[in-house]
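Sample entry was shown:
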Amino acid sequence: MNALRKLYKELTSLHWEIGFLDNTFEGIVRGDKLKLTLVTHNFPNSWFADPFILDVTDDTIIVLVEEVTKKISKGRISKLVIDRRNNYVIEKKVILERPGHLSFPIIYRKDDKIYVYPENSEDGVLNIYEYNPINDDMTLIHELSDKPLTDAVFTDLFGKPQLFTTQAEYANGFQLDQYEWSDTKQQFVYVTSSIFPERIARMAGYFFKVNGKVYRPAQESNTNYGHAISLQETSFVDGKWVFREVRRMASPHLELSQSFHTLNSYKGVIVVDVLGKRYPLASKMVNVAAALAKRILKKLITMKFEHYKTRNGSEIDIPIPTSYRDCLELLKSDYFRIYGRVDSLGVIWLKSFRDRALKHLFWLRFASYRGCLYPICKLRHEHYKLKYDCRVHAGSKIGYGLYLGHAMSMCVSIRCIIGNNVNLSQMSNIGTNEGNQAIIGNNVYIGPMTCLIEGVHIGENSLIGAGSIVTKDVYSNSTAVGNPCRVIGENKHPEYIQNRWLIKR
């Protein structure tokens, strides 16, 4: 099964590639058709994005990129040396790696020195490094900002040092922030923001000039992250920034068409990146087959549900198992309530040997379906029901994620309805003599030594305090205590229901 999962993940995986545009900025602004040549390489376990050109020679193009590998899910900054004759990567070297994610290694040149200030918003700062071409390493120079900035781009085209960026929390949103250099603080400080009608705020590369006009490449992220590049004429008029979109560019590659999100140039060479399926044809075939199989399985094996409603209006869907697969799903929901994770049946069974509540729930769930193993499951459940005096009947209608506190001295009538993600505590009694069923809504906490009399209804998200004698209905989102039990206010302790199981229909 794990092998199939790995194969499916590999066949449907996405990958970034970098390439060069056989265009000029004048042609791009004019609306010329984009001509893309992809870079090829022999690093199948890595993908490259966010390219910035470090140097261009007669024979090679050297770029800094974000590199992500299969083993390391976070980004790091690597240098690629590309042969100009065949656009093949002849050398790769990691030059900056940190505990947090690194990307967008934008380059700034001054006084024959090369500086790089990559995005490291996970660290909550923006650092600038000096690149040493001799040793191929970077030295931390200064902290440009103490804010978690994403894809920050420096420019002095408007007369003073400025930084255009987005905040990490809203990186792909509508707001573009402008910062200016402060000699006093020796940092870039926030000045103003510009709001866009679409998700086209995030920077996609350097500002550039064509025929005296300044243009800003931005990431259009309406459909998905970095879906296309929005090219915007940028000006500062009457104290306000004005951004006028002149062109929107989707990926020119038919297969790598999911994202197109950086555009940069140096010495007349324009570099971009694109995103798409690693195996597009195989991915389509696998997805079609998976969708078909899912539809067939859904028809063959589907958990049945019974719908109930409390007198105060709470809606409850109780799962009714129709196979042992359904029983396992119910058991996993109970296990998740206890441990906060999902494990295999074998792990759950082994843990049940030292967990009284889990042991009872294990046989309770499998005894709730009258399959071929019903006699064995029923006998084991009856054994532990008597041993621990935890009388929760296998025929009871119980939702996902039942939590039994200590699983001792507990009695639950077979006629009652227990919703999803319910906590039952020790020495509680939910009974009936006259056949009137009690109904407990979703996300309800029943405290120790609580007694529910006959057919009372407990609304969802409620809390019943310890030692309560419940003789009347309790409405939703309330706290009720006492003998006789009465509502004293809203439920201010939703944390009592931990590790809630997400119900999927």
Notes: The first helix runs from residue 2 to 11.
